Amino acid sequence: MDFNKNKNNNKKDNSLLFSTSLIFEQNIDNLWIYLRDLSSEARKVENIERLHFIKGDNSWTPGNIYCINWIGLTRLEFKCISTKVERNKKVIIWKVKGDIGINFYRMLSLYRITKNNKTLVKSIITRTEKQNELIDFSESLNYYLNTEFNILSAISKNLNKLNKDIISYESCIINKNIEKVWEFISDFKKVCSLTTMNIKKIEFKSPITKEGSFLKFYLENLKMHVFMKIVNIDSSKNKKCWYLRIETIGTNIDQLPKNIEYKIKKINNNQTQLSIEHRFKYDIKADFLKSFKIKKQNNLKKFKKYIEDENDNQEKINQDLVNNDENDI
Q1: For residue 98, which of 75, 78, 80 has the smallest C-alpha distance?
Q2: CA–CA separation, 116 vs 271, rounded Å?
Q3: Which of 44, 174, 240, 283 suits 104 as a labelling partner, its CA being 20 to 30 A distant?
Q4: CA angle 256, 259, 262 (to 5 degrees)
Q5: For residue range 160-198, what is the model confidence (pLDDT) as tens digits?
Q6: Matching CATH topology for 3-162 and 166-328?
Q7: CA–CA separation, 174 and 31 (whole Å)
């Protein structure tokens, strides 16, 4: 969580009391729907109770009035003054009145961060009048500044808890035993050579079938190097289900799965179920996911054909050798 807090140090603008900002993990469109709704905010922030609408049925339509109770301080009445919705910037302003003479404007500005699809949120608190001699904010300014930042922080933490990874799962039945399927899946160079992904220059130092092993490859379509780590592996002979889990390492991985799991389940001595699960961040684009699903289905068909055909050919070669030896005798 990145944040910034600012007091009013600009003598030319006496209306500004303070501002604070925070970078949210969510994209601007989804976040706008949530932040403009003050009832959502009231449910997530301590010391704030939801009361009722005085006018209208939401807190983001200009002219609507919404009332909450700030426990231990005052009753606050929010009136939506204006909204501005653009692709890369969204702004909403409320005029706030308190029972003890606390009156101010609260403005939330959302800015799209195009590099990582996150959102910068700025909360700016300004006076509704040039100066109120009855109320001195100077001593309590830090309290209100920290309170406003804590509100944004609490909302961010709760939103992050709500975000669930998106799972892409596909499977197929391969007419070979579990050992043959595992032999293929644990050979990363062979697996990558058959995928529709533009994977180049696969590198690894320690044995790839060992937990903690790292591998590196280059993705042509994204023009980037990718680093992954084997986090779990189990091919115990006494188990009917074997698996291999890989985790993507790095920060610039928004278009890559967070982790991949290959699961190989024994059906009988001649059939095995191979399933592949990719886990993406909650905000992966639907169009990308749809295209990815089709590619993975095609990859599974290739894997199935390769495993069955290669082993069939090898078995035929072995049988021919046996027959030749018998003929020689």
Answers
A1: 75
A2: 43
A3: 44
A4: 120
A5: 877 677 889 999 999 999 999 999 998 888 888 887 667
A6: yes
A7: 44
What is the C-alpha separation between 316 and 190, in angstroms, rounded? 21
With a CB cutoff of 8 Å and minimum separation 6, the contacts of 288 are: 255
Using DSSP, how many helices (H) and how many strands (E) does the chain show? 6, 15
The model carries a pTM of 0.52
Q: What is the pLDDT of residues 300-323, one digit of tens each?
A: 999 999 999 875 555 543 444 344
Q: State which fold the 3-162 domain adopts.
A: Alpha-D-Glucose-1,6-Bisphosphate; Chain A, domain 4 (3.30.530)
| Amino acid, single-letter form, for residue 79 | K
CATH topology of domain 166-328: Alpha-D-Glucose-1,6-Bisphosphate; Chain A, domain 4 (3.30.530)
Top mean pLDDT of 122-131, 160-169, 227-236, 263-272 is at 263-272
